[in-house]
Structure formats: C-alpha cells, structure tokens
Sequence to fold (287 residues):
Amino acid sequence: MKYNFIEVRRIALAAFLVFFSFSLRGNEEQKNRGPVIERRRIVRDHSPVTRDKNYFTFNSRFIGTTAQDVNRAIRHLPRITDNIRAFLKNDNNLKPGNEMLIPAWGGLYCNIPELTGRKDAVNTNEPAYVLSLLFCSKFEEAETAAKAILEKENENYGALLMLGLLSEYRKENFTYLNRAFLSNPYKTLLIFDWHLGKFRVSPAEEWDFVDAFFQMLTKNKNLLRDLELPPEVAIRLNQAFLTKYEDKEVSSDMEVMISIIRKNMKIEKMREIHRQSIEKSSETYSH
Fold:
C-alpha cells in the first residue's frame, strides 16, 4: 500500500513544534531579563581576564580535554574495562555506557599490546577488546577478533553485537545484528543508538543498510511491543523512517512496526524534560 507520508509527517511536525515553541520561549525569557543579565553572560564567556581581573582567561571552547581524558582513562583503566564488560553482557544494564571516558579508554586499550610489546597485555578474546578496536576504526581487526570469540562461544551476545555494529562496514555482518536483536531486542536497539554518537563506521561496500535495519524490525515487530524505548531513541528512529521512506511504498506490516515505535515517543515527557532544561538555564543566568 502507499505509505501515508502526510499523516506521519504531521506527527513529526507536532514533535518539532513542541521543541521549537519551548526554544522560542527560552529565548524570550532571556530577552526579558534585561541588559544587565546579558552583560554578565558576555563578561563571563568572552572577557579576556577573570572576574577578579588578576588572570587571563583561557578559551575553553578551543582547549581540548584529550590529554586529561587520556590521563584519567589510564588511571581508571581496570574500572572502565570492567564497566565495558558489564555493558556488553546479555542483560538490560546500560548504565556503564554513560562512562564519559569510554572513547579515551578505547584508544588506549586496543593499543596496549603494541605499546607494551606484549600481545597478552590485554584479553583480546572478549567483546570489550573488539569495542576498543572500533573506537580506533580498526574494523577488519575487530571482525577477526569477534569471529574468533564466536568460534569458541557461538551465542556470545557481545561478539554478535559488535559484529552487528559492523553491518554498515560490511553487508555480510548484518546476520549478526539480527541474531543480537533476537537475543536481546531492547539492549541491541539502545546500544546501536548509543554507538551513533560515539564512533563512525565507514562502509567498505555500498549497500542499503537502513532499509535492511527497518525490514529486520518489521519482521520481528512483535518483539517491539513490550519495549519501553527512551523517547529520544524512538524519535530518532521515527525521523530516520520518515526520511528513508518519503513518498515510497511500504508494507502494512512496516506501518505497524513504526506505529509501535512511535508509542514510545511520549511527547509530553520530552516537553517536561525540555521545560526543566530551560528552568535550569534560567537559574544559571540569574546568578
């Protein structure tokens, strides 16, 4: 059947208007505070000297924190590694993924064998090591390492998931993403969404990954029914769907699939989160 793009576009537009209206309100609130508040913000953000006028200010927008992150990642390497191991287990524990030092950890962990001259310096037979390779764009090494794990443990969820993330790199890896999703739909979707903001996977071959992804969700739509996806994840999937299938024919099953995902968008909840964010910003500027 013809996909009713106008109807779902209206849903997306409603979500956009909610955020846009709050954005305008936030801007209006800042204007109403008067020039004194605005001057304070300019002094704080752009003054070449500190408030006490005793020191020059550093431009934190251009000074990176790479060295500090690497230093902290080295100091906390065992703890972060344990968190990553927990993150890639077949359960619904996603808290370790909030670790801010994971990118720095990834750059360090996969290079420890080379830096130390010892191949056994880290455990290369676990999903955590595969993830570290992805942070360094060592995709072929990551494929090899993950497949070696699966040869010993055919249903290792972490290895299936890591190879699944490499579907964008190589089409033949998509079967592993499907297996990971069947094993743990909730965690697979959230870690897939998580990785989009952590590292980039460059395709080694051209293929329609997005369509395959939504076809997978459609085929297994019943697994989506009881999932409580975070609103931001549901909104991102919905926007991707609208963009991909604009003015195209989609099946009735695919329409059912995306309607299930949309139930998680919870616009009212996102509105409340946005309102709290504006209030927090207001408090910051008023001090």
Q: What stands out?
A: The chain has 15 helices and no strands. Confidence is low (pLDDT under 50) at residues 1-9, 11-44.
